Amino acid sequence: MRAYVLHAIEDFRMEEVPKPVPGAGEVLLAVKAAGICGSDIPRIYRTGTYSYPLVPGHEFSGVVVEAGIGVDREWLGRKAGIFPMIPCGHCAQCRQKKYELCRSYGYLGSRTAGGFADYVTVPAWNLLELPETVSFEAAAMMEPMAVAVHALRNSGLMEDRWKNRTMAICGLGAIGLLLLMFMLENGASRVFVIGNKDNQREIAESIGIEENRFCDVRNEDADKWLMEKTGGEGVELYFDCVGSRETLLYGLQCTSPGGKIQLVGNPVSDMYVEKEIYWKILRNQLTLSGSWNSSFSHSLEDDWHYVLRKLTEGRINPERLISHRFSLEELVKGFELMRDKSEAYTKVIGKFY
Questions:
Q1: What is the Cα–Cα distance from 177 to 328, expressed in whole angstroms?
Q2: What angle do CA 96, 101, 103 make, to 5 degrees?
Q3: SS3 call for 44
Q4: Integer Cα distance of 17 and 306 in angstroms
Q5: Mean pLDDT over residues 6-31, rounded?
């Protein structure tokens, strides 16, 4: 089969490799769509991964074509979305079904073979059956959608008490824009957004943000802008979807007393704060909360099933964020585009059918 294989940092190419065989408890999935995550770019070109060779790709969907020993053959021919984390099942967190907090997990696309290939083996436990109404591209975006929902739930926004409060999203990549979609769909009405690209403004406005609630950091100081927009009060809930010291400081400067800062973006730099800023955390009684991954417990109440309901009901349309589609043969153009930032993009998807 064809697969993009990472042999070392920057040694990344499509090649012919043996088609995998599903083991006990696994299925073979014919990959139909795969999204390139922002985290794939440093993994391939800068920082590397846990072991080589590796087929990256953790945002993907497809059709089950083979079933290993112990797997219900009813899965054959079914469409599936894939939860990429493989929990150990034994640690204290797994025993509580908080699998996203597993201390000894595997991960499709970073610790074991992922979805940038014709086929991939996946534990049957990680499958989420899809209705015909959900496209492969939308299903490939379920992972970042579930990450956004997990952050929202962790912030308390899904509770009624947040719906009429003042909030800000800093960073309008795919996760930030998906946060905005779910936030507005959930009834939030006082939302400000911070971005740095024209296409981010266009998409945010198409989703429902008023023009005067978009801060372009190329022209404005975000913290000063937010304080002005809120009459000097600040925001009650601030989502940092960037992960830089600068954007964290925005939140610490412009979150109101008793407010919350929800950290979502993977860190792009070391974090430190001056004593003056640390005093703000104490004296304003700010809450800083981290969010990572998403909940998948086979419960109808987990993040993935929440996302699936919204997709099935047509309440959320993630495909509007897709800026580029590439075939498997041309997908390297997507990696290079994101690496070099050679043109504006929002979500880059590989469409393999």
A1: 26
A2: 100
A3: helix
A4: 36
A5: 98
Contact of 328 with 55, CB cutoff 8 Å: no
C-alpha to C-alpha distance for 103 and 92, rounded to whole angstroms: 9
Q: Is the pLDDT of residue 237 over 80?
A: yes
- The β-bridge partners of 2 are 16
Could you list the beta-strand ranges (E) of the chain: 2-8, 11-16, 26-36, 59-67, 79-82, 85-86, 106-107, 119-123, 127-129, 166-170, 190-195, 214-216, 235-240, 255-263, 287-290, 322-326, 347-351
Report d(CA 133, CA 345) in Å as an integer: 26
Q: Residue 334: what pLDDT?
A: 98
| 97 Rama sector, left if φ>0, alpha if ψ -120 to 50, beta otherwise | left
d(CA 130, CA 137): 12
Give the integer Cα–Cα distance in Å for 198 and 6: 33
Q: Is 180 in a helix, a strand, or coil?
A: helix
Average pLDDT over all residues of the chain? 96
Query: Two tokens at 206?
Result: 């198409």
DSSP per position, 284-349: TT-EEEE--S---SS-TTSHHHHHHHHHHTTS--GGGGEEEEE-TTTHHHHHHHHHHT-S--SEEE
Give me the mean pLDDT over the 191-201 stretch. Answer: 96
* Confidence bin at 165 (pLDDT 50/70/90): confident
Residue pLDDT, tens place only, 50-78: 999 999 999 999 999 999 999 999 999 99
Nearest Cα neighbor of 114 from 186, 53, 60, 178 is 60
Q: What is the secondary structure of 12-28 as a DSSP string?
A: EEEEE-PPP---TTEEE
pLDDT of residue 157 exceeding 90, the answer is: no
Distance between CA atoms of 291 and 26, rounded to whole angstroms? 29
Looking at residue 161, its pLDDT comes to 65
